[in-house]
From TrEMBL:
Name listed for the protein in its UniProt record: Flagellar protein FliL
Biological processes annotated in GO: bacterial-type flagellum-dependent swarming motility; chemotaxis
Domain of life: Bacteria
Function of the protein: Controls the rotational direction of flagella during chemotaxis.
This protein's UniProt keywords: Cell membrane, Cell projection, Chemotaxis, Cilium, Flagellar rotation, Flagellum, Membrane, Transmembrane, Transmembrane helix
Cell location: Cell membrane
Similarity comment: Belongs to the FliL family.
Annotated Gene Ontology cellular component terms: bacterial-type flagellum basal body; plasma membrane
Record's bilayer topology term: Single-pass membrane protein
Transmembrane regions listed in the UniProt entry: 6-27
InterPro entries linked to this entry: FliL
Pfam families: FliL
Length: 142
C-alpha cells in the first residue's frame, strides 16, 4: 500500500512540475515576443530611413504642392534598395499627387490616406524589404 501511495505522489509531483515548467516557458516566450514587437529605438528609425528630396508638382485642382518625405524601412537592405529606387519613388509620388485635388490633401485624414497610398505603392516595388512608415516632413499647398 505504501508503494502504491508513493507512486501516485511521484506522478502528481512530476505532473505539477511539468505544468509549471511549461507555464514558465510559455510566459517567457510571450515576454520575448512582446519585447521584440515593441517600437524600435529612434536610432534604428534614423538608420533605416531614407529622405526624399523636395518635390513640387501640380495637383488635379490646378493647385501646387511642395512636400518632402521621409521613408522608414524595416532593414538596412530595404534602405539601400529604396535609395537606389529614389527616381521610381519620385515618379510614384508625382503620379499620385497629379490625381488628387487640394481638398483631398487638406486636413489630417487626407494626408494620412496619401501616406498609406504611397506606402502601398512603394512596397509593391520593393524586393528586399518593406516601407514601414512614410513621414511628411514638409508640406506647402498653394
Amino acid at each position: 500500500m505504501n508503494k502504491k501511495l508513493l507512486s501516485i505522489m511521484l506522478v502528481i509531483v512530476t505532473s505539477i512540475s511539468l505544468i509549471g515548467v511549461t507555464a514558465i516557458v510559455v510566459v517567457m516566450k510571450y515576454m520575448n515576443t512582446e519585447t521584440a514587437s515593441a517600437a524600435p529605438s529612434i536610432d534604428k528609425v534614423i538608420e533605416y530611413s531614407v529622405d526624399l528630396p523636395e518635390i513640387t508638382t501640380n495637383l488635379s485642382s490646378d493647385n501646387i504642392v511642395r512636400l518632402t518625405l521621409k521613408f522608414e524601412t524595416d532593414s538596412k537592405k530595404a534602405r539601400e534598395e529604396l535609395q537606389k529606387r529614389e527616381f521610381q519613388v519620385k515618379d510614384i509620388v508625382i503620379s499620385e499627387l497629379s490625381g488628387v485635388s487640394a481638398d483631398e490633401l487638406e486636413g489630417k485624414e487626407g494626408r494620412e490616406e496619401f501616406k498609406k497610398l504611397i506606402t502601398a505603392k512603394v512596397n509593391e516595388l520593393m524586393k528586399d524589404g518593406k516601407v514601414k512608415q512614410v513621414y511628411v516632413t514638409s508640406f506647402i499647398l498653394q
